[in-house]
Specification:
Layout: E1 9-14, H1 19-33, E2 38-44, H2 46-61, E3 67-71, H3 76-79, H4 97-105, H5 108-117, E4 124-127, H6 134-141, E5 145-149, H7 153-165, E6 178-179, E7 188-189, H8 196-199, H9 203-217, E8 221-224, H10 228-238, E9 245-247, H11 258-263, H12 272-280, E10 287-291, H13 300-312, E11 317-321, H14 328-336, H15 339-342, E12 347-351, H16 356-360, E13 365-370, H17 374-382, E14 387-389, H18 396-407, E15 410-412, H19 433-444, H20 448-467, H21 473-501, H22 507-511, H23 514-517
Parallel strand pairs: 1-2, 1-4, 2-3, 4-5, 5-8, 8-9, 10-11, 10-13, 11-12, 13-14, 14-15
Antiparallel strand pairs: 6-7
Length: 526
């Protein structure tokens, strides 16, 4: 019987079609492919593949990694979407979200055919919890399946405890605070800060969420873009909810070269050398970086207040205006107020996509004004940059509480309610220029509080980098996960070999079956 102990493994990643999933998933794919005997395939749609092709090509040519992108047609027309809507950030209206998710479900059959034709055959599927149909593929091909989360175990556990306890239903109004139960830290939230799918869930949405949750619970484990030293208690407790939890990040640290940092995720809207030259001219730890992720959309009046707050802080700043936030109203104001001219000595405005990791890792960075998306938080921490928190929707208010109340590596700007995605104009201005200036001053004034925040984030950043080094906690967790998959692959191969030796009436058939060869989490294979 041939030994399978050192057989090569083929990991197949199927991320959700959104930058907040695709960027960390691609980073993680590169980290996986660096492990000996591992091949990685990323299944996504043509337009999304085009965004990441240059990054994958560099990994193949420069680092000689066995990694590839496999484009598969996204059924826009069949789902009632305009052609080209292959990513959540390309949706022009919230009304298209339902059709977008319908289209993702239509991918099951073509992905199954792709997996069946693969050589070598898949050893493992790693996917997003928002693609629950992948559980059926893992069963069909008899391979382990892991959920890769782009959110924190802090949020996962808090949300789980709130849902199980109904703690949010104990308050009389949406603005009355309640305590998150079952956690060691005092965490207060309001219903107004919870995600829409929690506070305004339709029956259809509740069924979809339940489907996703069941798919997560049936997975072999959960992979989290974090590191053990960051939120260990919450990871350990969430491991009691699911089968396994492995923190394998921060995955952004796989980008060592300037070219990888600059081109990560999308084509940058600014010249690399111009960006670095501008930052080089600024004093260390002096620049405010304001960027709000790939999905947050901000109204022109709110952006104007942000601009005025950045200006009144009298500190250098890099301000990212996303393509989706362009408006005639904003451009008219910028032109009439001559804003760029009057701030040109200390302000850099980038319209479009910014090389965030490259900017954050520059010594000139002094603070990161962020929407509190988990990927951005991880990238800020890795660069040892303190945070100014401006949560907007989804799980971002949970993340703010973790950053401000638990880790104490940032300050809150003061926003109290979520923005409903694609309906931001209806809310008006939630943060005024005085709020922006006050938060910046609090973090940049050189006082004791600011010094302590900087000390803590510097300490966290050092731990993050060590976690990703050889022998670090995240490296160890990744190797443990790979060993788990290797054992499952060996047992599968053994079962197949026995199937070839036994006949239907053989006593071996009743004594040994693939099901009996499976083992529980934590057990060693014999």
């Amino acid at each position: 019987m041939a030994s399978q102990a050192h057989q090569d493994l083929h990991f197949v990643l199927i991320p959700m079609m959104s930058q907040s999933y695709l960027i960390p998933s691609t980073d993680f794919a590169k980290l996986l492919a660096q492990q000996q005997g591992v091949t990685v395939s990323i299944i996504t749609t043509p337009l999304n593949a085009a965004r990441f092709q240059a990054m994958i090509d560099r990994a193949r040519s420069t680092s000689k990694l066995n990694i590839q992108l496999l484009p598969i047609r996204f059924p826009c027309r069949e789902a009632g979407l305009p052609e080209g809507c292959e990513n959540l950030d390309s949706l022009t209206s919230r009304s298209l979200v339902k059709q977008f998710f319908m289209a993702t479900y239509m991918l099951q059959d073509p992905v199954e055919k792709l997996l069946a034709a693969m050589q070598p055959q898949p050893s493992c599927i790693i996917t997003s919890n928002s693609l629950p149909w992948t559980s059926k593929l893992a069963l069909k091909f008899n391979v382990p399946r892991f959920i890769f989360h782009h959110i924190s175990t802090f949020h996962l556990l808090c949300a789980h405890n709130i849902a199980c306890s109904g703690a949010d239903e104990s308050v009389g109004s949406d603005t009355e605070p309640f305590l998150v139960p079952g956690v060691p830290d005092r965490i207060e939230l309001t219903r107004a800060q919870l995600p829409d799918e929690v506070k305004r869930a339709t029956e259809e949405m509740k069924r979809a969420i339940e489907h996703m949750k069941n798919a997560e619970l049936s997975a072999d484990g959960v992979l989290v873009n974090s590191f053990d030293e960051f939120d260990s208690w919450y990871a350990e407790e969430y491991a009691k909810v699911v089968k396994n939890v492995w923190c394998i990040g921060p995955v952004s640290l796989c980008n060592k070269d300037m070219s990888d940092k600059f081109n990560r995720g999308n084509k940058a809207s600014i010249d690399e050398h111009h960006c670095l030259k501008w930052l080089d001219a600024m004093a260390p730890r002096s620049v405010i970086y304001a960027c709000f992720g790939s999905l947050c959309r901000i109204s022109a009046p709110q952006l104007i207040q942000l601009a005025l707050g950045l200006e009144s802080s009298n500190r250098p700043f890099v301000w990212i205006i996303r393509k989706e936030d362009y408006s005639a109203e904003l451009e008219k104001w910028l032109a009439e107020e001559n804003f760029q001219e009057r701030t040109k000595e200390r302000g850099l405005i980038v319209r479009g996509w910014a090389p965030q990791v490259l900017i954050l890792s520059h010594p000139a960075l002094g603070a990161f004004l962020t929407h509190c998306g988990w990927n951005s938080i991880m990238e800020g921490v890795c660069s040892k940059v303190p945070l100014i928190t401006w949560p907007m929707f989804a799980e971002q208010f949970y993340n703010e509480r973790f950053i401000v109340d638990v880790l104490k590596i940032g300050v809150a700007i003061g926003v109290k309610v979520t923005m409903k995605w694609a309906q931001e104009k209806n809310l008006g201005v939630l943060v005024n220029k005085e709020d922006v200036k006050r938060a910046i001053d609090r973090l940049m004034d050189g006082g004791e509080e600011a010094a302590e925040i900087r000390r803590r984030v510097r300490e966290m950043g050092e731990m993050a980098n060590k976690a990703m080094e050889e022998g670090g906690s995240s490296q160890w967790n990744m190797k443990t996960m790979i060993q788990y998959v290797r054992k499952q692959a060996s047992l599968k191969a053994l079962a197949q070999e026995l199937d070839g030796l036994r006949g239907p009436c053989s006593p071996v058939a009743s004594a040994v079956s693939p099901g009996r060869l499976m083992f529980k989490s934590g057990e060693a294979a014999s």
